[in-house]
Amino acid sequence: MSLIKRLSPRLANQIAAGEVVERPASVVKELLENSLDAGADRIEIEIEGAGSRLIRVRDNGSGMTADDLPLALARHATSKIAELDDLEAVATLGFRGEALASIGSVSRLTLTSNSADEGAGVCAFTEGRDMQVTVKPAAHPRGTTVEVRDLFFNTPARRKFLRTDKTEFAHVDEVVKRVALSRFDVAFQLRHNGRTIHSLRPASAGMEQARRVAGVCGPAFMEQTVAIQREVPGLSVRGWVGLPTFSRSQADLQYFYVNGRIIRDRLVAHAVRQAYRDVLYHGRHPAFVLYLDMDPAQVDVNVHPTKHEVRFRQGRDVHNFLFSTLHKALSDVRPGTASMPAS
Ligand code: ADP
Ligand code: MG
Q1: Where exactly are the transmembrane stretches of this chain (predicted)?
Q2: Of the residues 137, 167, 200, which one is the last residue of a structural domain?
Q3: Is the shortest distance between the CB of 147 and ligand 1 below 6 Å?
Q4: What confidence score (pLDDT) does residue 75 get?
Q5: Is residue 43 part of a domain?
């Protein structure tokens, strides 16, 4: 008799969920990434009870067929990569095929979708218990709606870790802001307990983009910021860096994107800190919204399940590029010259 037993799929998913689904905000992040990967340009997020009662994300993306739905909910099933080589240059936000399976194992999840402009759609429901999926017809325009109810209803230990609604909502709001700053071409709406929190129209021109940044980071940021844009072979950066006069007591206004994905990276943090070193008081933090674009093969995003961390192949080059760009921008600044970057 063997002492080693195979975990049931449900338990395996719940263990994986521990890494990916920490709180309602993590669910919102994964669902928004899926909507963006599906090519949506309008995404509506509706939550109740700071997300622990309900999270509903509705998009107008590519949608899914009846055959897709059970697979979408299965672990290690994805439409985004097929072989190891694809990992070398992931162009989508997701690729691990884990999020929906994980979320479904710790909530009551309904997927409703339609992949065509006409006809009715399909709907699948799964409830943490057994991961059985039944697909039924359901009305839905082209796109997908994911509804997540009663998060952690079957994992009381996790549920206990949830903080107050105020705190959990703040996390959800932060996720929506991060995503909204990553895709100016997409309309976002966030509603909480029936109240509209954000309603952001697509922003194409520089002026509209600046308005979205002001909406997300506050008008004061835009007034005390300098727009930057620089390109060298293989690397380009653009965005807004806060003037030293807009320093913060916390590192709470720092958005850094690599190829459209928000990341936290020590090397990037170090480059920014160095660039601000001579102009910021000790203990103050800079504010910035920066977009770095590079060859996807030069950056590894498969470092952590939440995909917040990356590994640069040429870390030194990235560091030097960022440092020199920001350093120059900050030393060039004369008060009142803040302007918009071209997009
Ligand atoms: P991943 O995003 O890593 O592929 P997920 O578990 O998040 O894994 O999603 C599994 C699959 O379900 C995706 O690869 C995609 O094909 C499909 N899917 C999920 N959400 C959507 C959506 N909003 N619109 C269309 N397809 C979706
Ligand atoms: Mg995903």
Answers
A1: none
A2: 200
A3: no
A4: 85
A5: yes
> Is residue 57 within 6 Å of ligand 1 at its C-beta?
no
pLDDT digits (tens, 9 = 90+) for 89-120: 777 888 888 899 999 999 999 999 999 988 88
* Atom 11 of ligand 1, residue of closest alpha carbon: 72
What average pLDDT does this structure show over 137-159?
A: 95
What's the burial of 302, exposed, middle or buried (CB within 10 Å: 0-12/13-18/19+)? middle
| 19-23, 137-141, 250-254, 260-264, range with greatest mean pLDDT | 137-141
Q: Which of 19, 27, 35, 37 to mutate to test the pocket of ligand 1 (most atoms within 8 A of CB)?
A: 37
* 164 neighbors 145 (Cβ within 8 angstroms): no
Across the range 224-245, mean pLDDT stands at 95
CA distance 46 to 192: 6
26 lines ligand 1 (CB under 6 A): no
Q: Residue 30 and residue 45: Cα distance in Å, rounded?
A: 12
Question: 175, 200, 225 — which closes off a domain?
Answer: 200
Cα 210 to ligand 2 centre (Å): 29
